[in-house]
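Worked example 4.2. Below are the chains of a multi-component assembly; read each line carefully before continuing.
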Amino acid sequence: MKLRSIFAGALLALTAISGPALAEYPERTIESILPAGAGPALSVSQIIAEAMSKELGVPLTVLATPGAGGIKAFQTGLNKPADGYTIIDGYVAPLVLQPILKKADWNFEDFIPLHAAASNAFAIGWRTDETRWSSFEEMMAWGRENPGKLRYSSGQRNNLPHLVMARVLQSYQVVAQNVPYKSPPAANNDVKSGILDFAFVNVGNYKQDPEALKIGLVLSEQPAAKAAFGGAPSIAEIDADLGISGLAPMGWDWWLVKKDTPADRVETLRAAMGKAMNDPDVRAKIERMGFVPLDWDHTNYVEIVSGVRDQLSTMADAIKWEEDALKAVK
Amino acid sequence: MIGSLKVGRRFAEWCAAALMLVLVALVFQQIRDVLAPAGMAEGGPYDNAAAYPRGVAMVLLGLVALQIVVQLVSRGSLNERGFRLDRFTRPAVIILIFGLYLGLLGTLGYHVASAPMLFAIMAACGSRQWGQMIAFSLGISFGLAWFFESQLDVVLPGGIFNLNIPW
Amino acid sequence: MFDMLLNGLGLVASLSTVILVGAGLVIGLLVGALPGLGPLMGIILLLPYAITFPPVQAMGFLIAIYVGGSCGGAISAILLRIPGTPLAAATLFDGYPMAQKGRAADAIGIAISASAIGGAFGGLILILFSPSLAAFAAGFGPPEYALLAITGLTAIAAVSDQSMLKGLIAGAAGLLLATIGTDEFTAAERFTFGLFELSNGFNIVAIVVGLFAISEMSSLLTGDDLLKRPELSVARPGFRSAFLVLKRWPNLLRSSTIGACVGALPGAGGVISSFTAYAVAKTFAKPEERYGEGAEGGIVASESANNATAGGALVPTLALGIPGDAATAVLIGALLILGVFPGPTLFAQHSDIVGGIFLVYMLANVALFVVGILMTPLFVYVLRLRKVILIPTVLLLCAIGTFAVGSSIFDLWVMFAFGFVGLILRAGGYPLAPMVIGVILGPLLENNVRRSLLLSNDGLQIFIERPVSATLLFINVALLICVAVFALRRLTAGRKPDILQGSA
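Applying the procedure described above to all three chains together yields the following C-alpha cells:
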C-alpha cells in the first residue's frame, strides 16, 4: 500500500513537470536526423542546429544515421511521432534520388518543409602529374579509345555524383568503371597515388589542398561553383549538352518534418530556421565548409524540388547504361 | 527435479556449435532466396555481394566441423564439472526482467520503466529492504537521466506518454 | 619544426586552454568508462559547444575528449569486465584478472599511465614525422588495406590463447556478422531480413556491450554474495603507477609505435592497434609473466597502443586532410567550421595553428595522467558497491549508453540478443574478443579485397606488384607460419586437450 502510493506519487510528479500538452513548445531537446555519418555534412547540420537551438531555447542535436543511401535516416525519422521534436535532414539522395531509383516509396511532398539548408557542388578531378590528358575533352577522347579502362570513383555507388558522372560519361559514350569508396577523401587519395584515374571532388576536399588534384570539370553551370573550384571549366563550357542545371547536379538538403506535425510547431521551427539561415555568422561558417547556404523558405519547396526531380528522372537511365556498357566491354 | 539436472561445458559447446551452424545456414539460405534472385550472387566484385560471405561461411563451416570432431573425440577426457541447473534460476529471472524492460521501454518510456526495473532486479537479487530499494531505484534512474538528458542532450525514450523531463 | 611549436605556444598558453583540456578529459573519461558511449559520441555531442572557442582551444577541448575517451573504456574493462568502448576489449584480458586479485587501483593506474605515455609518444611521432608518415600512409591503397586486415586477423590466434580453434570460429562468425547491412559495392541491402534498422549493419557498440556485459552480470549473479558489502581493501593508486609502466619500456615503446603507425593509416583504428600490440607483447613475453591472468604488460600494451593511435590518427588528419578515423572526421569538421583547412597548406600558411594543435595534444596526454589518477578513487568506488546495487545499475547504464549512440531501441534488442550469444559462447569456452576483431575488420577486409579485384580486373597480381603490398603479404605469410608452428609445437608437446578445449 505504502509502496504503491509512493510510486503513484512519483509518476504524478513526473507528469506534472513534463505533461506535453500543458507546456510551451519546445520544452526539450529536438533531434535532427542526418542521413550521413561523421563528415562535412554532419558539421554543416551542426552549425545550423546550434543556431536554431539558440533561437528555440532548447538543445537541438544532430543524429548521424548513415545506411542504405540515406533511407535508414528517413525511416528512423518517419517512425518517430509527428510532434515537432524530430527533424529530418532531407538530403537530395534519400528525398529525391532513392524514390526515382525505386528504392524508397515516399514522395518529397510527403514531408513538410521548414527551410532550405545548404548546397555543395561537385567536380571531376585527376592527379596533377597526369600525362595522358590535360583537359576533360582529352580525357573523354582517351576514354573512347580505351573502353572500360578508365577507373573512377563517385564515392558510393548509385549516389548523386554517380548519376551525374554517369550521365556525363554517357553523353561522351565513354565506358568507365566506378569503384565504390565509403570515404570520398580516401578515393581522392587513391587518385593522387595513381590507383584511380579520376574521382568526384567536393569543395571542402578541394580547398584543403588545391595543389593536389587538377579540377577538370565542375559539375554545375553556376558561376559560384566554378569560382569555388578556382575557376576550373564547368559543364556550361563543354560540347555536350547534359540537360542539367541549377540544384540538379549538386548535393543539397532541405530540413523537413513529418506530415501531421502541428502547424504552430512547424511555424516555430520555420521561424527559427529562417533566422538561423539569415545569420551572417552561420552563413560564414557554412561557406568555410565549402557549402553554400540556401535562401529558399518553405514556399519555394515544391517548385525547386520538383524541378530537380524532373531533371534527375530524365538521367535515371545513365547508371543502367553504364552497367550494361561495362558488361559488353568485358 | 529439473533443478538437480546438471549442465556444463559440454552442453554449452554443443549449443555454440549449433549457433554457428544456424549462422552458416542463414547465410546460404539468404544467398539462395534473396541475393540470387536479385542478381547479386553472380558477376565480378562490382555486382556480386554473395561471393565473400559465402567464402567466409564455408571457412566457418569447416572450422565448426573440426570443432565438432574434437568434441566427439575428446568425449570423456574432459573432466565435466557441471552446474546444477537451479544455480541459473536467478540469472534467468534477471535476464527476463531486463528483457521485459527493453520490451516495455519503447511503450512506457524511460522514466516510467526504469525505476521499477531496478527495483525488480534488486528484489530478485534477494534484497528486502524496501525503503532503501525504492530510494536507490528512483535515485539511480533519475540521476542517470539527468546526466544523459541535461548534460549530453540525449533524448531518452519518451514512450506513448511522451514523458521527457525538461531539466 | 621548433618554430612551429614556439609559434603555437602563444595560442596554447592560457588558463582557459588548460581548463578546457581538463574539462574535456573528465568528459572523455566518463563517456569512455560508461558502457556504450565512446570518444566519437563524446566529440559529436560536444562539438557545438567547442566551436564557440578559437581553433586551438576548441581543438584542445575536443582532442581531450578523444584522448580521455580512448582511455576511459579501460576502467570499466578492468572493474566490470565490460569494455566501455570496443577500444578497451584487449585491456580486459589482464586488467580484469588483476582487479580480481585485489589490484584494481594498480591496474587502472597502469592503464591511465600507459595511455598517457603512449599517447604522448604518439604525439612525438606526430610532431617529428608528420609529413613523412603522411606520405607513407598516402601510398596505402586497397591491396595494402586488405592485407593489413589479414594481419589484424592473425591477432585472433594470440588472444584466443589455448582455444585457437574456438577463437577462429568466433572470428569467422564476426566477419560474417559484419557483412550485414548495405553492401558498399552493389549499394543494395544484404542479410537485413527487410529490417531498415539493419541497413547499416549491427551497431558495434551494441555487439560489444551485449557480448560482455550480459554474460558478466549473469556470472556475478550465480554468486552467493549479492547482498554483502565487498570486503575489498582498495589501495589508492599513486602517481607511482607511472614507474610500473616505465619499467616495461620495451613493451611501451613497441606498442606505442604500433599504435601510432596503425593510427596514421586512415580507416584502420584503435581496436586493430590495441589487439595487435597485445598479441605482439604476449608473443615476446616470458612464460612466467602469465599473460591473460593479470600481467601488467598486457594492460601496458593495449592501452599505450590505443592512445598512441589517437596521436597517429591526427597525422593524416592534419597533414593530408584525410580523417584517420570517424572521430578525427568530426575534428576535421570542427576545424573547417572554424575556418582552418587541414592539409599541406595549413602547415605552410598557419604553422602556429599546427604547432598549437600539436601542443594541446601533448598537454591533453600529460593532463590525462594527472586527471586520471585523481579520478581513479571515484571509479574504484564501484568495487565497494554491493552487487545488488551494482548489477541493476550496470544493466541500466548499458541500456542507456547503447541507446544514446543511435537513439535506437532496436540497438537495445541487438545488445540483448548478443547477450545470449555471449552467454553461450562463454559457457562453451569460446573467447569473445575474436568476434569483436572479426566485426571490426570485416568491412576493411571485404571492401578492400573487392576494390583490389575491381581495379585489377579480377587478377591477384595487384597484391604482389605493389612493393608495400608485397611486403605486407610477406609479413602475413611469416606470421601465419609462426602461428602454425607455435600451435604444432604445443600439439606435439602433448597438451592437445588444452589447445583444443581452452579455458573460459
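Take a moment to check your reading of the output against the notes. Residues 2-18 of chain A form the longest helix (17 residues). Chain A has two domains: 29-120+251-296, 122-248+316-329.
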